[in-house]
């Protein structure tokens, strides 16, 4: 039919090719370095320098980098530290932001828009500006060189954007639903629980957004938890960056290992996120 | 005993007064409809009775108990919302059982009460389904079932049939009227902007406008004896025709109101006359639109088919004494 032919033709039109081309180019640009890192983590040092973009062959293939990561570094310990910090931060952030956002949407007090505005301001302010006062607080609380200090700082860092995002999701909960719950005798907390399943995609989004900057951060672990047993993965990788010489295979191996949990967590949460979006809010 | 007494109720948002000195008494077993145009305060009044809105001034009594300051779940009311407001992540059974669970009733008693209500509404085959797997009419029944299960003294309906198609609406109207007959110890308050719904379902109708009660009466009382110009124009479909100025002079009143069904075309003469601009043949009735120089055409209802064409000049008069006279202030004048 005429319309079908026209449709098929337009799927190869110039602008579609250009758009696809650009998108593919940027994907390669973004994924390229990661791919090179993973590729070279399986090569010997000469293999890396002689042909950085060549896949490992019989001569250049080596698992020595990975070996040294486990023997010289404290990769398992680092992993556990990173996981503890990241997961605890995510849990604290999700819980507190859900409560805060529900309250800010539900209770029409004069202070509510001011508080919501304060959270938005919090997104704009970089928490690193307050590093010195934060360090002083941690010293006063005897929390220097603990994972707890990291968890506290990261939760504070993540809450502003989490609350702002959850406010948008809680606004989609129909008011009549909460009113029906109130008439049925639900108190404030139970009304919150009724609203919660509707904002599930929001919770997944918050978890996803919180996870990345926390896991990848080098700044606060260096300042607040630098000792060997408290090091996170990002800090532990620095082990292989020497002043005069870098152990590249080990470095790249450590980096590769560092990506894995992020990818796994991201796949889990983003699937929930997308599933929640397609489920929609039934009446 | 489920009487509802509202005394001198005012509702204000800051300096804006949306309900002014409402006084109503609704007896147990009655079906009362609140009608009025958008913004008249009917939904606000309903929400004040439910407890979802605070009563700024005045008193509300349900079943002899002063509930002015009591929370919504403790007033003995149940509400059916326009959007049904079913809990989307619970099954039909859990939706209906929720309030009972919150009252910490034993499981067996809850099951009994839920099944009894489900039976009444033919919902038993759907108890394990989620709301998203139900049709609009079924969801509405679940919303009603959730209300029944609470054994309330007063049922509050907030435009519950607005989201249904016409055929379903007619069916649900009958079911709700039936429900009212089956529950003689409860009162039902029904908010609607559709005056046909009110006329067919209600024992009494409360007409509201701008937060003030215009008239309270049975459907027939409102139809035959409107106490204000607004009620006369609001009740009846199509609207009552109003003649003003020199057209009303014959009757020595500021406004003469005649319903379309109370006008008859005269072969010669007639109190008023005009030019036909439009006619509709609907089968059992026809409607003829006549231009008399006013902003709105006069509508006459004739039974059976008619054969008037645009441009015909027609004279017409009210049938018998089925006309209403109003003075300049919109107050009815006897005749």
Please give a handful of descriptors for the protein shown:
heterodimer, A: 283 residues, MetI-like fold, 2 domains, globular, B: 335 residues, alpha+beta, Rossmann fold, OB fold (Dihydrolipoamide Acetyltransferase, E2P), six-stranded mixed sheet, five-stranded antiparallel sheet, 19 strands, elongated
Characterization of this structure:
The complex is a heterodimer of chains A (283) and B (335). Chain A is mainly α and 283 residues long. Chain A has two domains: 13-62, no CATH class; 72-279, MetI-like fold. Chain A is built from 14 helices and no strands. In chain A, helix 5 (75-106) runs antiparallel to helix 6 (111-124), helix 9 (175-184) crosses helix 10 (188-195) and helix 11 runs antiparallel to helix 14 (248-279). The longest helix of chain A is centred in the N-terminal third of the chain and has 32 residues, at 75-106. Chain A is globular and about 75 Å long. With 335 residues, chain B is of the alpha+beta class. The model of chain B has no long low-confidence stretch (mean pLDDT 91). Chain B starts with a strand and ends with a strand. Chain B has two domains: 4-233, P-loop containing nucleotide triphosphate hydrolases (Rossmann fold); 240-333, Beta Barrel (OB fold (Dihydrolipoamide Acetyltransferase, E2P)), CATH 2.40.50. In chain B, a hairpin with a 2-residue loop joins strand 9 (204-209) and strand 10 (212-217). Chain B has nine helices and 19 strands. Chains A and B meet through helix 9 of A and strand 6 and helix 2 of B.
Distance between the termini of chain B: 41 Å
Mean pLDDT rating of chain B: 91
Radius of gyration of chain A equals: 24 Å
Instruction: Enumerate how many helices of chain A there are, as a single number.
Output: 14
The CATH topology of the largest domain in chain B = Rossmann fold
The CATH superfamily of the largest domain in chain B is P-loop containing nucleotide triphosphate hydrolases
Distance between the termini of chain A: 40 Å
Give the CA-based shape of chain B. Answer: elongated
Number of helices of chain B: 9
Instruction: Give the oligomeric state.
Output: heterodimer
Q: In CATH's first tier, which class of the largest domain in chain B applies?
A: Alpha Beta
């Amino acid at each position: 039919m005429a319309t079908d032919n026209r449709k098929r033709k337009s799927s190869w039109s110039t602008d579609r090719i250009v758009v696809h081309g650009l998108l593919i180019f940027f994907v390669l640009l973004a994924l390229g370095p990661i791919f090179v890192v993973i590729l070279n983590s399986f090569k010997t040092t000469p293999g890396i320098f002689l042909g950085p973009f060549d896949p490992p062959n019989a001569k250049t293939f080596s698992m020595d980098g990975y070996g040294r990561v486990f023997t010289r570094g404290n990769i398992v310990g680092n992993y556990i530290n990173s996981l503890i910090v990241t997961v605890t931060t995510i849990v604290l952030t999700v819980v507190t932001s859900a409560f805060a956002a529900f309250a800010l949407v539900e209770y029409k007090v004069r202070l509510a828009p001011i508080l919501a505005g304060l959270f938005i301001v919090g997104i704009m302010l970089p928490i690193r500006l307050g590093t010195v006062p934060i360090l002083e607080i941690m010293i006063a609380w005897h929390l220097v060189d603990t994972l707890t200090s990291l968890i506290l700082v990261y939760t504070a860092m993540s809450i502003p954007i989490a609350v702002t995002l959850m406010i948008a999701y809680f606004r989609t909960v129909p008011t009549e639903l909460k009113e029906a719950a109130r008439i049925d005798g639900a108190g404030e907390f139970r009304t919150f629980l009724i609203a919660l399943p509707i904002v599930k995609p929001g919770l997944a989004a918050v978890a996803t957004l919180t996870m990345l900057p926390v896991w990848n951060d080098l700044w606060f672990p260096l300042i607040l938890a630098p000792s060997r047993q408290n090091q996170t993965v990002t800090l532990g990788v620095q082990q292989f960056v020497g002043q005069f010489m870098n152990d590249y295979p080990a470095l790249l191996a450590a980096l590769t290992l560092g990506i894995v949990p992020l990818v796994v967590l991201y796949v889990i949460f983003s699937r929930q996120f997308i599933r929640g979006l397609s489920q929609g809010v039934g009446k | 005993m489920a009487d509802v007494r509202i005394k001198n109720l005012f509702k204000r948002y800051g300096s804006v007064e949306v309900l002014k000195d409402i006084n109503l008494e609704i007896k147990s077993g009655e079906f009362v409809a609140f009608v009025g145009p958008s913004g008249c305060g009917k939904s606000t009044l309903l929400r004040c009775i439910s407890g979802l809105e605070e009563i700024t001034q005045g008193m509300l009594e349900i079943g002899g108990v002063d509930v002015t300051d009591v929370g919504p779940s403790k007033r003995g009311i149940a509400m059916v919302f326009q959007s049904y407001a079913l809990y989307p992540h619970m099954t039909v059974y859990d939706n209906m059982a929720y309030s009972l669970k919150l009252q910490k009733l034993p499981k067996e008693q809850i099951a009994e009460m839920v099944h009894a209500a489900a039976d009444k509404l033919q919902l038993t085959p759907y108890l394990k389904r989620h709301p998203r797997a139900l049709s609009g009419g079924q969801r509405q029944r679940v919303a009603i079932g959730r209300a029944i299960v609470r054994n309330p003294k007063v049922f509050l309906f907030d435009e519950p049939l607005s989201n249904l198609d016409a055929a379903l609406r007619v069916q649900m109207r009958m079911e709700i009227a039936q429900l009212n007959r089956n529950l003689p110890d409860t009162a039902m308050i029904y908010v609607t902007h559709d005056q046909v719904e009110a006329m067919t379902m209600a024992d009494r109708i409360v007409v509201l406008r701008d937060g003030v009660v215009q008239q309270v009466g049975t459907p027939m009382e409102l139809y035959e004896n409107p106490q204000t110009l607004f009620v006369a124009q609001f009740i009846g479909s199509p609207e009552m025709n109003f003649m003003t100025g020199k057209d009303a002079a014959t009757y020595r009143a500021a406004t003469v109101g005649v319903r379309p069904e109370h006008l008859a075309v005269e072969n010669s003469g007639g109190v008023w006359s005009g030019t036909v601009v439009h006619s509709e043949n609907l089968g059992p009735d026809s409607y003829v639109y006549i231009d008399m120089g006013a902003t709105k055409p006069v509508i006459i209802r004739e039974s059976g088919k008619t054969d008037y064409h645009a441009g015909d000049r027609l004279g017409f008069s009210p049938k018998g004494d089925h006309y209403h006279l109003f003075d300049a202030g919109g107050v009815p004048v006897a005749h």
